[in-house]
């Protein structure tokens, strides 16, 4: 009899725990991710693969909170709770968020390649293929007609190369005018007629209610392939640029060190701040990194670098945390290093 009671109690508790995991709270839980080496991800055609050390991007893991993970985050260092509205844009679905992060990664890749190739005195040019839909404004004409990720290549009879050209064309229309949009979704070409209308927050501005990103193809010599299908967001830009540059040059700038870091990068090689720096420092420390590059934000007291230093002290890391404002800052630091 007692065995049956114990068994039923355990079964009931197990069922309750399983049921609780399906309850979704209006938060995301973020935590330290991992440090992933970039050499297997970056493939420069006939590039140098002679690294004695390594370059790694750092990540933050996240997931929708349930009552169990919510409580877990409350009692563990470097596990953070983020309200949904702080994590995603208003009315943005999980699918749209994921697509936006992938587009941000693609833009980051392009900037990283451009920076590294120009620094290595290699050929860089572009071809244009239209514009990507990055966001759709609720209540505007494009809602329910276009989706995030659609690639628009023609409006009426006009082909477009940049987002600026699209905005100028549509902005010259009158309220109520209709335009025919030719676009591609998941490899299938489609066409839809959409009226233009004023924006609620800016009535003098006419549009269909979408944010756009120019879809341009970067053409470089030698060719390059980046295997980043499962990585989203722009924060790996700096580290990708360093790995690409290292494969373009005979000299190994890693010099035997395990090097991690984070930071966005633009085509001019300027490094920008990112979110989750504390968790990325923890992830890099656990992975045994020797050096970590952190965005300096031109010396701001609240910069990523300052936060990284504080966290480094708390966890007693042996990593050397280095402030950078540009790709050249990181490159200069590495070129002055002695071989490990």
TrEMBL record:
EC number: 3.4.21.53
Catalytic machinery residues: 235, 280
Residues covered by the PDZ domain: 101-156
Cited Pfam families: Lon_C, PDZ_2
TM region(s), chain numbering: 7-29
Domain Lon proteolytic: from-to ranges: 229-337
Gene3D superfamilies noted in UniProt: 2.30.42.10, 3.30.230.10
Record's keyword terms, sorted: Hydrolase, Membrane, Protease, Serine protease, Transmembrane, Transmembrane helix
Enzyme class: hydrolase
Catalysed reaction, written as an equation: Hydrolysis of proteins in presence of ATP
NCBIfam families, per database record: SepM_fam_S16
Similarity section: Belongs to the peptidase S16 family.
Protein name: endopeptidase La
Species this chain originates from: Metabacillus niabensis
């Amino acid at each position: 009899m007692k065995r049956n009671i114990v068994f039923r109690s355990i079964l009931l508790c197990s069922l309750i725990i399983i049921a609780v995991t399906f309850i979704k709270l209006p938060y995301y839980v973020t935590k330290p991710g991992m440090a992933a080496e970039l050499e297997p991800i970056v493939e420069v055609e006939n590039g140098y693969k002679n690294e004695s050390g390594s370059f790694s991007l750092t990540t933050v893991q996240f997931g929708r909170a349930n009552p169990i993970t919510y409580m877990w985050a409350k009692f563990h260092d470097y596990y953070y709770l983020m309200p949904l509205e702080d994590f995603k844009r208003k009315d943005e679905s999980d699918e749209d968020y994921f697509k936006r992060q992938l587009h941000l990664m693609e833009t980051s890749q392009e900037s990283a390649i451009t920076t590294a190739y120009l620094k290595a005195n290699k050929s860089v040019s572009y071809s244009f293929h239209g514009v990507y839909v990055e966001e759709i404004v609720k209540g505007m004409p494009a809602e329910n007609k276009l989706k995030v990720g659609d690639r628009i290549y023609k409006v009426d009879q006009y082909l477009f190369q940049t987002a600026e050209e699209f905005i100028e064309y549509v902005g010259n229309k009158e309220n109520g005018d209709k335009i025919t949009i030719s676009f591609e979704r998941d490899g299938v070409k489609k066409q839809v007629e959409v009226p233009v209308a004023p924006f609620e927050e800016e009535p003098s501005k006419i549009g269909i209610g979408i944010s756009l990103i120019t879809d341009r193809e970067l053409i470089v010599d030698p060719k390059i392939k980046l295997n980043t299908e499962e990585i989203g967001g722009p924060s790996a830009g700096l580290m990708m640029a360093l790995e690409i540059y290292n494969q373009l040059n005979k000299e190994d700038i890693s010099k035997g060190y395990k090097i991690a870091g984070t930071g966005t990068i633009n085509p001019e090689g300027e490094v920008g701040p990112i979110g989750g720096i504390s968790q990325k420092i923890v992830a890099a420390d656990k992975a045994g990194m020797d050096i970590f590059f952190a965005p300096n934000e031109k010396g701001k007291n609240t910069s990523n670098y300052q936060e990284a230093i504080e966290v480094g002290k708390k966890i007693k890391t042996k990593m050397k945390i280095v402030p950078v404002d540009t790709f050249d800052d990181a490159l200069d630091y590495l070129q002055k290093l002695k071989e490990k």
